[in-house]
Design a protein that fits this description.
This protein has about 280 residues and is α/β, with parallel strands linked by helices. It is built from eight helices and seven strands; from the N terminus they run E-H-E-H-E-H-E-H-E-H-H-E-H-H-E. Helix 1 packs parallel to helix 2 and helix 1 packs across helix 8. The chain is globular and about 45 Å long.
Length: about 280
């Protein structure tokens, strides 16, 4: 197969925008067959405007959940996600803001509880990454910003939502294959994903007596707006070729992991991580 997995492209700022990508990611769960696994539940998905977050939010709606999504400022992508959720006959709440701000996370919890009267599922998915080839060139500001969004954001949002989550609730955190393999050009990002792995395992033990499960998903190379907004034209074109399947995955291929972990089908799983990564063997 061709080593050029996608047409060469890049975007000038993060967060990236799905409308500008060629081809568009498959994130509308068009071929997904639902079975009512989340009927009557309420889910919160951070970074739910596009990519994996959009696929998860739409998949949850297909399974019967009402969904609230948070996003930074990608209003067009978020509106598209909202339309897809409404098309499934479910209610949706879209809340723009920065998960790295604890006040915003408290406001998210307040709005969702007011709108839906309950919160059953939390997906901590919002993240950012910035390529830096040499550690000496990693600025204090970038280091702090990456950890604030990727790690602090998960702590802040989980802490805010837990008072509204009852026994039987489920939390699913997005980590990454880079937490296990490392990434020489994304040292700070990979480090945040390792922290999320420890957060997932530790919180699972803490919340077990309360009947709340905590698991994670560690995607490999997935075709999302984060890719053209992070890498240069050549790297974006090659994204996914290093996976054993020699291609990037689609958000639709990752979302079923979140649906399973959020549902009662995964009632005997907590502190675990699933690995939709195109065939890379992970021991851990």
């Amino acid at each position: 197969m061709s080593k050029t997995a996608q047409p060469p492209q890049s975007q000038s700022r993060q967060p990236g925008h799905e409308q500008e990508m060629q081809p568009r990611p498959a994130s509308a769960m068009a071929n997904y067959r639902a079975a009512g696994r989340l009927a009557g539940m309420v889910a919160v998905v951070s970074g739910g405007d596009s990519g994996i977050g959009q696929a998860v939010a739409v998949g949850f709606a297909k399974e019967g959940a009402d969904v609230a999504i948070t996003y930074l400022d990608e209003h067009e992508d978020a509106g598209e996600t909202a339309d897809l959720i409404k098309a499934e006959g479910r209610r949706v709440l879209i809340i723009p803001g920065d998960v790295g701000n604890p006040d915003f996370c408290r406001e998210v919890a307040r709005q969702v509880a007011k709108e839906f009267s309950r919160i059953d599922i939390l997906v901590n998915n919002a993240a950012e990454q910035h390529v830096t080839k040499r550690l000496e060139d990693l600025s204090d500001a970038q280091l702090e910003r990456t950890f604030r969004t990727n790690v602090f954001g998960q702590f802040f949002l989980t802490r805010a939502i837990l008072p509204y989550m009852r026994e039987g609730g489920s939390i699913v955190n997005t980590t990454s294959v880079t937490a296990y393999q490392g990434s020489p050009g994304l040292v700070d990002y990979a480090s945040t994903k390792g922290a999320i792995l420890a957060f997932t395992r530790s919180l699972a033990r803490q919340l077990m007596p309360r009947g709340i499960r905590v698991n994670g998903v560690a995607p490999g190379p997935i075709w999302t707006p984060l890719i053209p907004s992070s890498f240069d034209v050549e790297e974006t074109a090659r994204h996914g070729e290093s996976a054993p399947m020699q291609r990037a995955g689609q958000p639709d291929e990752v979302a079923p992991c979140y649906i399973f972990l959020a549902s009662r089908d995964a009632s005997y799983m907590t502190g675990q991580v699933m690995h939709p990564n195109g065939g890379t063997i992970i021991n851990g």
